[in-house]
Design brief:
single chain, alpha/beta, Rossmann fold
């Protein structure tokens, strides 16, 4: 149905479970969201940071998404994020996915993947505090906020901020009543002030 929000969560080996489980749990409260796991390589089994094996059956199809969610995957040498940046496949796929009407969102060091794709250059964004300098070095305009909304680019801080990201996106796409319902169901109250560019 056209009124549904189609969310694609990008998985890769050693992706941090909480980074994507938080937002997905929020979206799961809503009836108007259709969620799909994807990988840049297409259908395969992904092993997350916790060792969970998730079978991804859907093809990489950013053209059918309204929102692409990119979780983090650790930090530093040997981390999932660093491996993806070194391979280059996922950053390239994210860069090529950009189109009008698509929102790209990242949790924690997932912002590094967007930065490696050139998508944060000159844009307000945030990430886990340990990776702030890395994103800044790639041209990101760092904002010390838990969630930063710059229109088609929405980023959040470390790990648990994925819940706040999910709640903010719920409010943005479905209104404050939907966000309040999700907060009530999850018994979680949002933390921090969302930074977002004033719409003129």
């Amino acid at each position: 149905m056209e009124d549904h929000l189609h969310v694609h969560t990008v998985l890769y080996d050693d992706a941090e479970d909480q980074d994507f489980i938080g937002p997905i749990t929020v979206f799961g409260v809503l009836e108007g969201v259709r969620h799909t796991y994807v990988t840049a390589e297409g259908p395969r089994t992904v092993t997350t940071a916790s060792g969970a094996e998730i079978t991804v059956r859907a093809p990489w199809s950013p053209g059918s998404a309204d929102l692409i969610l990119v979780p983090g995957g650790g930090y530093g040498e040997g981390s999932g994020v660093e491996c993806q940046i070194a391979r280059g496949t996922l950053p390239q796929a994210l860069a090529e996915a950009v189109r009008p009407g698509l929102v790209l969102a990242a949790v924690c060091t997932g912002t590094l993947l967007l930065a490696a794709a050139g998508l944060t250059k000159g844009r307000p964004c945030t990430t886990h505090h340990i990776a702030l300098d890395d994103v800044r070095a790639l041209g990101g305009d760092l904002v010390r906020a838990r969630v930063v909304d710059d229109g088609d680019l929405v980023t959040s801080g470390g790990v648990t901020s994925g819940l706040d990201l999910g709640l903010w996106l719920t409010e943005r796409f479905h209104g404050p009543q939907a966000a309040l319902l999700a907060e009530e169901v999850l018994e979680y109250e949002r933390r921090g002030t969302v930074w977002h560019r004033r719409q003129e």
